[in-house]
Amino acid sequence: MSLRDLRFALRTLVRSPVFSITAVVTIAVGIGAITAIFSVANAVLLRPLPYADPDRLVLLYSDLRARNNLGMPFSNENFVDLRDGTTGSIADLAGVQTFRQVLPNGDGNPEQVRVGAVTANFFEVLGVGVAVGRDFEAADGIPQPPPPAPAGPGPGGPPAPGAAPAQAAPPPPPLPTMAILSHEYWQRRFGGDRSILGQAIPTGGPQRLIVVGVLAPGFEILLPPADNVEPRPDIFIANRLTYNNAARNNYGLHPIGRLAAGATHGRAQDDLEKVAAEIRRNFTVYGTANYYVRLEPMHRALVSEVRPAILALLGAGAFLLLIACANVANLVLVRASLRETELAVRAALGGGSWQLVRPMLAESVLIAAAGTIGGLLLAYAGVQSLLAVAPARLPRLEGVRIDPYVLAFAAASGLAAALIFGLTPAVRALRLNVMKILRGSSRTEGLGRGSLLRQGVVAVEVALCFVLLVGSGLMVRSFLALQRIDPGFDANNVLTFQLLGGRGGPPDQRAATMRQLQTTLAALPGVEATTASFPFPLAGDFSTIRWGTAEALADNSKFQAVDWQRVHPGYFETMRTPLIEGRTFTEADNQSRQSVVVVDEMLAAKAFPNQSAVGQRILIRIRTPEPEWVEIIGVVRHQRVTTLADPGREQVYFTDGFLNFGGARKWAVRTSGDPSAIAGSVRAAIAGIDPQFLMTDVQPMSALVEKSQSSTRFQLLLVGVFASVAALLVAVGLYGVLSTIVRQRTAEIGVRMALGAAPSGILALVITQGMRLSAVGLAAGVVAAIGLTRLIRSLLIGVDATDPLTYAAMAGVFVIIVAGSAWLPARRAAALDPTVALRGE
User: Fold this and answer.
1) Rounded to an integer, what distance in angstroms lies between the CA atom of residue 529 and that of residue 377?
2) How distant is the alpha carbon of residue 331 from its chain centre?
3) Which of 25, 202, 631, 733 sits 20 to 30 Å CA-CA off 145?
4) Residue 637: which H helix or E strand, with range?
């Protein structure tokens, strides 16, 4: 194909502006849709992690299989055992846990900072260098020195009777905590001042944070969203790991390992199992809980939650592009049918096969090229829209952009589109019967040839579109089901926020501050009730503890996992969580010596089936190494605490005082109007009680509910848009084919009308033909949808992938689309003047 062919094709297309614009816009829509989704897939699924040799990085998870408690972090002790016992297959193992802390900023006011406590080898394992200063060293992770041991008998032991008691040895001074700053925090807080190296960051307390380094810009910790690890800590501190078997049940570390050279995932998993088996043998709790350690490739674990949705959306984009190509192929086939006489004359004058095909291929290339450029513009706008509506749990969201890989994908899509809609008419042109065409006298005879092929293309369009419509219908049903789910609380008119910092003090002082806060906030105008909790529904941070009935005393395997919350009295009333039986907490319960709990209906039904749970006792391990007895005083409605789509596990509630006061730091204020309107009054009231408090994460409870629906809403929006565009393209394609059929059958329609056929009969004839044409595609679409929608079963909520109601509804929608598409050509056929129609033929 030469430049001359392209120039000739361009002139030809310019002379047919309606065809050219329609074809280019159609291809642009298809390429724009799939390119926008590919940009997400490229950033999230395909782009390597920004660490050295990322394919060798792995994540470790604890599974207590007997309790169905999966994906847990690790205790220091289990982490150390695994690190030391797998050196043959895992070259090095690092650990991280994150939290938020309040530090004074430059003017002394409290500031929230995100802190990552990491093992000293953390950045070395990831292969990340320090831009300024130094990395952590092994000495930075040495545990704090233990307090002096009590004096024993003998020399240096207890004094003799009557002698003066010896002075206790002073505790050794605590070792400082070494810190590395993120580049962004270094610039924001210290203005990029290098003199901060070696200096202590003011903490407002005895803790000493010595800055030893600054990271390069843009560093982030890429762990799965379910791990609840801050991706961009402001400060990294060296974790001085202790090793104390009494604390082996205290979890927190998230391990990241690097496989040794030549080691496989299978070998590393085998080594981990040997260590886990030793832990199960040596510690009864882990043995009865069926403790296992699971290894996951880091990149696979990061995207496992979102991969099904992205692949489903990518498939929807591919379907839309195929529909667009089929639509343009139909346009090109009609155009080729009208040019058959021209092609036959060229062939009769000695034109070879390649000479006949080259102009058509050149037109296809130009249409595809223009469509690709338009598609890239649409994709750029689409990416900006995707970023605005994408769920927060989508990892590496900020990396979604039009990069060279996306450009190459768009170009490949354009080339594929040119082949799909360009080759079919070109191949058909090679099979022309020159003499038959030249002998033909009717101006519509060319339209008759290839009509079966054009109708087959429409049937394919219909099938693909119906799959998209069914997928869209299933997502609509899922979203509606999500709206009907009872979260176990009333999220309307509730302001939520987190309180960090404060003066602290002994337990009685913290208790007094909490009561003052609750009383002061409840007295504000427009406030109906106030409470605090930790964790907080739909806000993350949930973890599990052990619970069991009396039978667990004899058989540790009977212990099970339960989600827990510490709450203030009035929590259930403020959240409007229904009380099923018994009572809720009072202020008299809000103290450590009152071993009472409230449980949800799921735990009550599991622990005490067919009987009242109120007054019964269960075993709980939360504040002591061994489980302790607590009494159930009330049963409440189950709350959805992670997402609305996930029912979650059983729940148990403690008072804040039971766990020594001050830990319930996430607050809820129920108002009589717009909760955002009182945020300023709440902030002022809190500052009046303690200016060291920092109020963060201020948002209405309804915003948390909306965030929990964001993934389903995102999928519904995109699939719905794709299905709508596909339906429009199919309608246009069907209209084009029926219009061509009407032109082809003009003489027949004229004869029918001359013989007395009524316009209504002609109207019904054309519409019926459109219905018949679509029926084949619809049948194929039903079969394809039944097979393909099973792949999105994990994305659906409250509806089956083969839901008959959805299929019937989408079939009804499609009938309306077909009838609408057939109406205009049918109406034109019914309005034909038979004399004019017959004279034209």
Assistant:
1) 51
2) 39
3) 202
4) none
- The C-alpha R_g of the chain, in whole angstroms, comes to 35
How many Cβ atoms from other residues are within 10 Å of residue 580's Cβ?
16
Amino acid 232: pLDDT: 95
Taking the C-alpha atoms of residue 687 and residue 502, their distance in angstroms, rounded to an integer, is: 10
The 10 Å Cβ neighbour count of residue 778 is 20
Q: pTM for this one?
A: 0.83
pLDDT at 730: 82
Max Cα distance, the chain (Å): 136
Question: In whole angstroms, how far apart are CA 210 and each of 82, 172, 237, 262?
Answer: 30, 19, 9, 38
One DSSP character per residue, 201-233 reads EP-SSS--EEEEEEEPTT------GGG---SS-
pLDDT higher for 772 or 545? 545
Report whether pLDDT(442) > 50: no
Strands 651-655 and 579-582 turn out to be: unpaired
What lies within 8 Å, CB to CB, of 588 at 6+ separation is 594
Quick one: which of 512, 542, 540 has its CA closest to 656?
Answer: 512
Question: Do 456 and 777 form a contact (C-beta atoms < 8 A)?
Answer: no
Q: 3-state class of 72 per DSSP?
A: strand
Pull the structure tokens for residue 380.
């750029």
The pair of three-digit structure tokens given for residue 615, joined into one six-digit string: 């007054």
CB 436: neighbour CB atoms within 10 A? Answer: 12
In this predicted model, what pLDDT tens digit does every residue of 530-577 receive, in sequence order?
A: 999 999 998 877 888 889 999 988 888 889 999 999 999 999 999 999
Cα 493 to Cα 457, 673, 683, 759, distances in angstroms: 54, 6, 17, 61
Reply yes or no on whether the pLDDT at 354 is more than 60.
Answer: no
d(CA 46, CA 556): 44
The predicted pLDDT at position 768 comes to 76
What does the alpha-carbon distance between residue 277 and residue 562 come to, in Å, rounded to a whole number? 24
Residue 149, CA distances (Å) to 152, 157, 165, 176, 236 in order: 9, 11, 16, 22, 32
Give me the DSSP letters along 117-167. EE-TTHHHHHT--EEEE----GGGGPPPPPPPPPP-SSTTSSPPTTSPPPP
Tell how far CA 523 is from the center of its chain: 40
pLDDT value, residue 731: 80
- The residues near 763 (Cβ < 8 Å, ≥ 6 apart) are 826, 827, 829, 830
Which residues lie closer than 8 Å to 112 by C-beta, 6 or more apart?
Answer: 100, 101, 102, 500, 694, 696
* CA atoms 636, 640, 646, 651: torsion sign: negative
Do the bridges between strand 235-238 and strand 177-181 make them parallel or antiparallel, or are there none, so unpaired? Answer: antiparallel
User: CB 509: neighbour CB atoms within 10 A?
Assistant: 13
Please choose, from the candidates 404, 471, 415, the residue with its C-alpha nearest in 3D space to the C-alpha of residue 46.
404
Query: Which residue(s) pair with 235 in the sheet?
Result: 115, 181
Residue type at 200? Answer: A
Decide the pairing of beta strands 596-600 and 628-636: parallel
DSSP 578: P
Across residues 279-305, what is the average pLDDT?
93
Q: Cβ contacts of residue 141 below 8 Å, gap of 6+?
A: 119, 120, 121, 238, 239, 240, 241
Residue 764 has pLDDT above 80, yes or no: no
Helix (H, G, I), strand (E, B) or coil at 32: helix
Tens of pLDDT, residue by residue over 242-286, are: 888 877 888 889 999 999 999 999 999 999 999 999 999 999 889
Q: Return the amino acid letter for 493.
A: N
Strands 560-567 and 651-655: parallel
DSSP reduced 3-state for 197: coil
**Nearest to 688, CA basis, from 520, 570, 472:** 520
pLDDT above 70 for 443:
no
